[in-house]
Amino acid sequence: MALTTDHSSPMNRQRSGFARSLDSGFVWGTAAVAIAVGLLLAVIALQVGEDALPAIQKFGLGFLVSSRWSVIDGEFGALTQIYGTIVTSLIALFLAVPIGVGIAIFLSEDFLPPRIKQPIVFLVELLAAIPSVVYGIWGIFVLIPILRPFGIWLHETLGWIPLFATAPAGPGIYAAGLVLAIMILPIIAAISRDAMVAVPAELRQAAYGLGATRWETIFQILLPAGFSGIAGGVMLALGRAMGETMAVTMLIGNANTIDSFSILSQGSTVASLLANQFAEAGGLQISALMYAALVLFALTLVVNILAEIVVRRFSLKL
Amino acid sequence: MTSRLQSARQTDSIFRTEDLNIYYGNFLAVRDLSIDIAKNSITAFIGPSGCGKSTVLRCFNRLNDLIKSFHIEGKIYYHDQDLYASEVDPVEVRRQVGMVFQKPNPFPKSIYDNIAFGPRLLGYKGDMDELVEQSLKQAALWDDVKDKLKAFGTDLSGGQQQRLCIARAVAVQPDVILMDEPCSALDPISTLKVEDLLQELKEKYTILIVTHNMQQASRASDYTAFFNVEANSKGQRTGYVVEYERTEAIFQSPKQQATQEYVSGRFG
Amino acid sequence: MTAPDFATARRPGSLNRKPTSPRTLFASAMTVLSIFFTLLALIPLVAVLAYVLANGLSRLDVAAFTQLPPAPGLGGGGFGNALLGTLLTVAIAAVISIPFGVVAAIYLSEFGRDTRLADWVNFFTNVLSGVPSIVIGAFAYAVVVLTTGTFSAVAGGVALAILMLPTIVRTAAEALESVPNDFRQASIGLGATRLQTTLKIVFPAAVPAILTGIMLAIARAAGETAPVLFTASFSQYWNTTIWQPTATLSRLVFSFATAPYPGQQELAWTASLVLVALVLVTSILARLVTQRRHK
What we know:
Chain B has 268 residues and is α/β, with parallel strands linked by helices.
């Protein structure tokens, strides 16, 4: 049977100009929305920056090194809060990094059968799902009463160390740091676990084949090979800790001065400052708060971009 | 049941399996394996894909232990010791029975550190530089890399990487080296280099090599075991040894029809 | 089977376990330590859940869901207006963020894959997800509260929408990317346009996974406090419009937990229980849905 060509069949109809432009319009439309989503970051920075402008003009970089925050005098400096942000985040990292990486090792290697391992992985992830404000209320009514005797003991036995120089008053920098550690733990554990799991099985077998024990393989092969992934996870966690607001606000005591370097003293972070003052702020105070928000934004931006670069390099390499 | 050929005892055996069945869960991967492996010689495992030859190889250094569902019936003796006895430490086994894998797998470390990895684990107290040089020489890689020992092992060419892996295995001075298709990822020239290397290495080590390449088996090995695979009614494919003899015998005067067909390239 | 037979060679060294060797001891110690760390991490989870349950159950009654908050110092009452406010702000956030997020994901997955533009959008979206939620609150305050002159559900919704956006973009893009390429090729091979292929073939196949991502994003947003703190702000009363200060559950937990009145503290615990139940149920549901799909 011979094939005939029938030019009148609907299959051969030219696509109409409208259909074609509809199609490319669709593609360009989605691209435009994607660009808009990408640009949102810049829009946020510009808007917050614009509202911060009066305070930036008035206080300049002195804002970063002055610890005087006085609504009545119209004098604003965020050193206390920047200090508090950094110290609470460092405490959180100090506690969460070893534990998080330890969990990642335990849950990435074959210590447990998958049937038991998967639920534990899920439970650790759930730690990240609990709302910040719930950690806050739990911290106020449960954690601080438990921590207080421990803080008093620290102060009485190790009070000569500047870190423990003040008597704990209940809420304080240490309590905020501890809750932050709990909150960033799942991030570190999850990303470190991904990094370890991504190490090729061949390397693991090569090490075992040479007579390495499981832990020698972990320390000498898997951790170095997964290092940049783990580092990226730690950076992301640091960014999250610096910006975390509610639990910190509820537990840090919200003192607007640096009295000592003691972690048992009360303090505040940039985020807790914003949380406490924005709702009732007016005039220059709004601008100063926007300036503080911009500082926090810049801090977390740097940390997050570094994390993103580290994580990308790592995912390209493996 | 299988009988062992009481041929002239030209040499000593290093591994001996007795009625070995290998399982992954309920799946029987290899059945009824009873073979002896000769010391200071090269024994090749050949056969079609899925016949279990790599699985058997990995029993000899207990690397299969890493797979949870793996278990065996029967016995594997290494020298006179039951390799799967409960008091045996697999880590110790792997120190004495080294392995080179199908895909070159150098660690993302320097060439030097790749070689030194094993000896350091074992607390080697001697001159490490000397040991690294010796090992690289044994793997015929010294001249290629002596000026760049700090370079990353992963930056070498594929053939060099595989010889690095051989040097790494040799550095812990094992008793046996298992090779799982060590040349399948290499070009013909690198393959020949590795094959030459095997002849030198067998002076000091016992070598078991799994290969898809029949020329390689006939060129390089002293003994050859031909594996085949058959499917049962449930479609599970179980491997078994058809014929195990001196390599010349396998290739020139095979006793079994299947061996004859496989070595002449009619299937597989 | 025939086989060469050899006398057994002498064995070089012992293969037996040495339980007291430093290598073995180190390995055992590390194993114990890592188990300890894992248990340590699960303590806060169990403790938070237990306390929220224990303290929240006492006021888990009908009044809690239907009545207005009690006056300071009084008992009883409820968080009906805050529950409604949470639904309202989250709904506004969803209406804003879902279309933008899904359409952007369509570009990233269908048309922009491996282009530099998509790389940049991915990069900025990831960075956006790391911007502190309080800063997003400050942005929404500047854009909505300062321009309209009032705290409102809309302001809270805008803040939450920005917060949800990266999650929606990422999960939707992943969902679309996991649709097998065969589908696209088959559709294009039949002469379908890209628009038709995307809307009729790829998108429907990805809908369950996209919905899972949206569900997770909504649950997380409902628990967020910092973005609504000074955008939706708070109110003791029912909403009549979306342009007035609006209470939310999370903000109510913050205000009442830090208030010195037991009646309000009880309500804060109960509201916490509701929030935790919401995120737990959605997380578990999402997990079950994903698991089934992978099987």
